[in-house]
């Protein structure tokens, strides 16, 4: 399964992308994470349904210095990513 999440709040400049990539790797997920121009962070995660759900839940808290206001989640297509990448 795959999900796309957009994380709103104070989530840039706090290590959110690297934290999300580490958590995704720990859960065996594939995909990517990127900062968006509007100050949000976008995540595409694919893999085992339970692991994707766990990552989406973790996104609601984020790393220590993040202040997550909300997470918008939708189903997405599985693209067959290999690994989990931090996009610039």
3D architecture notes:
This protein has 88 residues and is of the alpha+beta class. It has a single domain, classed as Alpha-Beta Plaits (2-Layer Sandwich). It is built from two helices and five strands. The protein has helices spanning 16-26, 49-59, and strands at residues 2-10, 30-35, 41-46, 67-75, 84-86. It has a five-stranded mixed beta sheet with strand order 4-1-3-2-5. Strand 2 and strand 3 form a beta hairpin.
Q: Major sheet, described briefly?
A: 5 strands, mixed
The rounded distance between the terminal residues' Cα atoms is 25 Å
Return the string of H and E elements. Answer: EHEEHEE
List the domain count as a whole number: 1
Low-confidence stretches: none
Share of residues in helices? 25-40%
Can you tell me the CATH architecture? Answer: 2-Layer Sandwich
Whole-number radius of gyration?
11 Å
Gross geometry: globular
- Strands of the widest sheet, in order across it, are 4-1-3-2-5
Structural class: alpha+beta
Question: Which helices and strands, and how do they pair?
Answer:
Elements: E1 2-10, H1 16-26, E2 30-35, E3 41-46, H2 49-59, E4 67-75, E5 84-86
Parallel strand pairs: 2-5
Antiparallel strand pairs: 1-3, 1-4, 2-3
Keywords, separated by commas or semicolons:
about 90 residues; alpha+beta; Alpha-Beta Plaits; five-stranded mixed β-sheet; 5 strands; about 40% strand; globular
């Amino acid at each position: 399964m795959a999900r796309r999440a957009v994380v709103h709040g104070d989530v840039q400049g706090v290590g959110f992308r690297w934290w999300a990539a580490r958590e995704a790797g720990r859960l065996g997920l594939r995909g990517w994470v990127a900062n968006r121009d509007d100050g949000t962070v976008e995540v595409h995660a694919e893999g085992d349904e339970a692991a994707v759900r766990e990552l989406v839940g973790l996104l609601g808290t984020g790393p220590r210095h993040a202040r997550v206001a909300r997470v918008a989640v939708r189903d997405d297509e599985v693209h067959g990513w290999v690994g989990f990448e931090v996009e610039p």
